[in-house]
Amino acid sequence: MTSKKLVNSVEECANDALAGLVACNPNLQLLEGHRVALRSDLDSLKGQVALLSGGGSGHEPAHAGFIGKGMLTGVIAGSVFASPAVGSILAAIRAVAQAGTVGTLLIVKNYTGDRLNFGFAMEQAKAEGIPVEMVVIGDDSAFTVLKKAGRRGLCGTVLIHKVAGALAEEGVGLEEITKRVNVIAKAMGTLGVSLSSCSVPGSKPTFELAADEVELGLGIHGEAGIQRIKMAPADQIVTLMIDHMTNTSNVSHVSVQSGSSVVLIVNNLGGLSFLELGIIADAAIRILEGRGVMVARALVGTFMSALEMSGVSLTLMLVDKPLLKLIDAETTATAWPHMAKVFVTGRKRIRAAPTEPPEVTEATAAGGVPPKQTVLVLERVCTTLLGLEEHLNALDRAAGDGDCGITHSRAAKAIQGWLKEGPALASPAQVLSKLSVLLLEKMGGSSGALYGLFLTAAAQPLKEKTDLPAWSAAMDAGMEAMQKYGKAAPGDRTMLDSLWAAAQELQAWKSPGASVLPVLTKAVKSAEAAAKATKNMQAGAGRASYISSAKLDQPDPGAVAVAAIFRAILEVLQTQGA
């Protein structure tokens, strides 16, 4: 079965993609009759060396995203994963030559088709009297033994675009740029790892990986790598990659050692989430710095992809001050990131947390909940929520991201950790205030915010009194805060449904002579009935409100959790004979 792609047609997808980039960027123009993009200010480059690159489509934003002042003059794009046509390459060379440039450097990744087609076009251009040179970039660090075809051209090519572009902008001649780029290109390496293959439009995935497998040392055209390894934490994967890239027994290694300064690229191969990309970047910098390597600059993002491949490549380039100056030079290329022109290593990354105001000591109000009973209640609530984790996740998957149980479990573990510290439980108001802060910090998501709002507001009436009317007022205050900021109302199929049902019963605590357990028992039953009733409600708030009601055939997980919390409180108080 072929993969799904948002294209108009397989045949025209490369043309359409390049046209879309040019349509959105006034600094680019298409060359009529060719799949070529050029700087729109081409005529302003008289007397300057032009830089042309390219290759197969499917590597976006490479290479057209790197067209601009200070980088490439133009790009020739082939079909997906296919070398561009010789005629188009030659047309691009002629176009920049006729604009008045004094020579053209072709920057080509080391693949047979690219070498042949760019080389043939170069020879034809030279025969026409146009000064042209070509540098072939091979930065692949996967192979430990030198292959006849040489190292593949990977994401390090982008750094060559940048360095050559800066030199051309300075007015350096063609011969000198070619010489310097060839030297610089030897001081870098790239290694990729992937969790999945990719698929050319109209085709099936190029290779298959088991659920517990990762492909190491793969290229950017969907070809398999040098080794399949078992899935492991990001730190282990990144360590393996850096070890392989810097191992001196590897013929394609980068000579990085303690004291070296490097530019690091963490490159998304297309389908990796930015969350994963950040984790990998953090691991790479920690591991390099742990070995005494100075990270001069770090580029994190998508620079040279392989369609939708869920993977990442790391590039290391050895740099000194003159080379860093070229990396830092200004460019208008849209795909080049804005970076601080300072070393990554040595920068202070953590700012001290703000000081908290001193806690106000509150006298324990008469009739307050004994500290031992408070601990028992909280422990039972935590045990209950931990036991419900999978059930709540299953309910949440119908209308959300399936993490309701995880967030409630996170809250329970945070409370358990706090209780182990043996906190002073001086008053109910202080306990609720502390719990609100704890859940806001540790629980996360909208649930953490809603519980935090409820507990913060509920604590206020309990500062003066802790009798039954005060506890009923605390419920009212908490519900009012949740409705004010959460925008939910009873009947909207949220946790508020269970809370509201319980609160209605707890109004009885405001009557003279009311007792704890009979009223609380009714409140728990009402909360449980309300939670069950959410199964038949149409969601009016929260993420579930975006889902068709026909698909919501389970109770709301937040309402179920609230009812379970009330049940846990009741069971402890019944045991204690409250």
UniProtKB/TrEMBL annotation:
- What's the subunit arrangement here? Homodimer. Interacts with IFIH1 (via the CARD domains), the interaction is inhibited by viral infection.
Q: Which cofactor does it need?
A: Mn(2+); Mg(2+); Co(2+)
Q: Does the keyword Metal-binding apply?
A: yes
Q: Which GO terms describe its molecular function?
A: ATP binding; FAD-AMP lyase (cyclizing) activity; glycerone kinase activity; metal ion binding; triokinase activity
Q: Which organism is it from?
A: Mesocricetus auratus (Golden hamster)
Which keywords does UniProt give here?
ATP-binding, Cobalt, FAD, Flavoprotein, Kinase, Lyase, Magnesium, Manganese, Metal-binding, Multifunctional enzyme, Nucleotide-binding, Phosphoprotein, Transferase
Q: What does the record give as the active site?
A: 221 (tele-hemiaminal-histidine intermediate)
Gene Ontology BP terms: carbohydrate phosphorylation; fructose catabolic process to hydroxyacetone phosphate and glyceraldehyde-3-phosphate; glycerol catabolic process; negative regulation of MDA-5 signaling pathway
DhaK domain mapped to chain residues? 9-336
Gene Ontology cellular-component terms listed: cytosol
State its Enzyme Commission number(s): 2.7.1.28, 2.7.1.29, 4.6.1.15
Q: Which InterPro entries match?
A: DhaK_ATP, DhaK_dom, DhaL_dom, DhaL_dom_sf, Dihydroxyacetone_Kinase
Highest taxon in the source lineage: Eukaryota
* Reaction(s) catalysed by this chain's protein: D-glyceraldehyde + ATP = D-glyceraldehyde 3-phosphate + ADP + H(+); FAD = riboflavin cyclic-4',5'-phosphate + AMP + H(+); dihydroxyacetone + ATP = dihydroxyacetone phosphate + ADP + H(+)
Regarding protein family, the annotation reads:
Belongs to the dihydroxyacetone kinase (DAK) family.
Domain DhaL, first and last residues per copy: 372-571
What name does this protein carry?
A: Triokinase/FMN cyclase
Carries keyword Lyase? yes
Functionally, this protein is described as follows:
Catalyzes both the phosphorylation of dihydroxyacetone and of glyceraldehyde, and the splitting of ribonucleoside diphosphate-X compounds among which FAD is the best substrate. Represses IFIH1-mediated cellular antiviral response.
Binding site residues for substrate: 56-59, 109, 114
